[in-house]
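Journal club side-thread
Mid-discussion, someone asked how the predicted structure for our own chain would compare to the paper's figures. Pasting it here so we can look after the session.
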Amino acid sequence: AGVAEGCVQSGCALIGGETAEMPGFYPVDEYDLAGFCVGMVDREKIIDGSNLKAGDVLIGLPSSGVHSNGFSLVRKLFAIDEENIKLYVPELGATLGETLLTPTKLYVKPVLALLDRCEVKAISHITGGGFFENIPRMLKSGLTAKVEIASIPKLPIFDLMQKKGDIPTREMYNTFNMGIGMIVAVDPADAEKAMEAMRAAGDTPYIIGSIEAGEKGVTLC
C-alpha cells in the first residue's frame, strides 16, 4: 500500500514486482523490500549547478520527520523495543513509533511545478549526511552555501534527540535533515515566483539562505 501511495504522489507507474519467499534465508514472517526507479531527462535540462552564482537564493521544502536517515543513531538514543515504541511522548504529540515511522515526504510534484515556472540553478536532496554532506554536491568550486538555522521549521523529534543524546548542533545537521528534505537554488529575481509555484503544488517552501563566494561548503548561521 505504501509503494502504491508513493507512486500516486509521484505520478509514477509501478510496472513490475514479485515476492520472493527464499526459504532458509529469511526467518518466518520476515522479508526484505528493495526497489529502484528509472527516469530520463533531456541533456539540456539536466540540473548540474553550472549556472549557480553568488547571490542565488536557497529555498527549502520541509521534511515530514526523520525520513529514512540516521536510524543507527536513533536506535542508540531510544533503545527501540516493542514496549517503548508504543509510548506516548507529550513533546511529540504522538507515540515514538508513530513519529519515527512517519512516511518520507516526496517532492516530485512541487519540484516539477517549479521547473515549469523558472530556472532551477541547483538542487539537493537532504538524505543521509544531512546538510554538510549533501549541499556541497550541488555547489561548484568557489561557492559556499550560507544557511540560516532560524528560518528552518522546527520539528520536535530533532530537539528531543539532540537533548537526549547531548548531540552538538553541527553533528545533528551532519546526520539528519533537521526539518528540510529538499533544497533548490534559484536566481533572487525568481525567488517569489518559485515559492508561488511550489505553494500551488501543495507544499510550504521557506527561504533558508543564499549562495556566497567562498570555499566550497556549508555555513550555519
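Post-session note: The chain is about 30% helix and 15% strand.
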